[in-house]
Design goal:
globular; 316 residues; mainly alpha; MetI-like fold
């Protein structure tokens, strides 16, 4: 009787609480998200007013709003450059190579780490693989130059000890793109594996036990249980990667490339940096950035639509 009375008293209070606005009902969660929201607004959305520079003859003394409107002139200049088609091609090729080679690498590493049973060894490997994510490309570029130097690099020392001629890796057009791809994979593979490891830890262990009883080995369990269980995570990260298809890695390329490999290594960002900022053409650089963002947005929407038609949740 007492329990029924207490429940009757609590029910109106619970229903009243449930009817409150979500901002009041979950105020503590929104308060925790507030710093990230402020950061996003201040550093991501507020600076977006600067895209109008792409349509103005920007003058530092006159400011953004008082500079003269020139319409699509910078876009016409950008597409009129003789080197722009080559730059677009390089950007797409490098991005696609990184996508094909680098995107599956964290998945494979996460699956391998998930199979380890020695926790100390597992954590040690995980730590060693994700530490490079925090190293600047300037440092990694210096390491690459030292390792691949034709005169003093350890790689060429080994090649010479085998009786071969030294290879100018960073000046070879055939090798330069692959150096970009594998150095990027080495830097980011451990960081990306963290996300997939978290998804793998959420799989019900009873599924693996049932598969073991049915006689399935580890490879079959990975193929039929692990991969399907993290498919949604893979799709979301793939969609985000496609949205950045025209971001081939400005800092990486800028640190590693040189005039001898401009034909294969010059991407949109580095080309605009040289041609635009080098001559103080801020409107031209802004037009190139806006072009990249528009193409990335279109690719993201198309990929998300395709994913939803294939039965996945997608990003939106």
């Amino acid at each position: 009787m007492k329990a029924a009375t207490a429940a009757a008293i609590r029910t109106p209070q619970a229903s009243k609480r449930a009817k409150r606005h979500p901002l009041l009902r979950y105020w503590d969660l929104y308060l925790m998200a507030l710093p990230a929201l402020i950061f996003l607004i201040v550093f991501k959305y507020v600076p977006m007013y600067g895209v109008v520079i792409a349509f103005k003859d920007y003058n530092i003394m006159q400011g953004v709003f008082h500079s003269k409107w020139i319409g699509l002139q910078y876009f016409r200049e950008l597409f009129a450059f003789d080197e722009f088609p080559r730059v677009i091609r390089n950007t797409l090729l490098i991005s696609l190579m990184k996508l094909v080679v680098g995107f599956p690498a964290p998945i494979i590493l996460a699956l391998l780490l998930n199979e380890l049973r020695l926790e100390k060894f597992k954590r040690s490997v995980q730590t060693v693989t994700y530490i490079p994510h925090f190293i600047s490309w300037v440092v990694i570029g210096g390491i690459a130059v030292d390792l691949l130097s034709p005169s003093s690099g350890i790689v060429n020392k080994l090649i010479q000890s085998l009786g071969f001629e030294p290879i100018f890796f960073l000046s070879d057009e055939k090798l330069f793109r692959w150096i970009l791809v594998f150095s990027d994979m080495w830097k980011e593979v451990g960081w990306g594996a963290i996300i997939y490891l978290a998804a793998l830890l959420g799989i019900n262990e009873e599924m693996f036990q049932a598969a073991t009883v049915d006689g399935a080995g580890r490879l079959r369990q990975i193929w039929h249980i692990s991969l399907p269980s993290i498919r949604s995570t893979i799709v979301i990260l793939l969609l985000l990667r496609i949205g950045h298809l025209l971001d081939a890695g400005f800092e990486q390329v800028l640190v590693m490339y040189n005039p001898t490999v401009y034909d294969v290594g010059d991407i949109i960002d580095t080309y605009v940096f040289r041609v635009g900022l080098g001559t103080m053409q801020f409107g031209l650089t802004t037009a190139a950035g806006l072009f990249k963002s528009a193409i990335g947005c279109i690719l993201l929407v198309l990929a998300n639509t395709l994913a939803r038609r294939m039965g996945e949740d997608g990003i939106f």
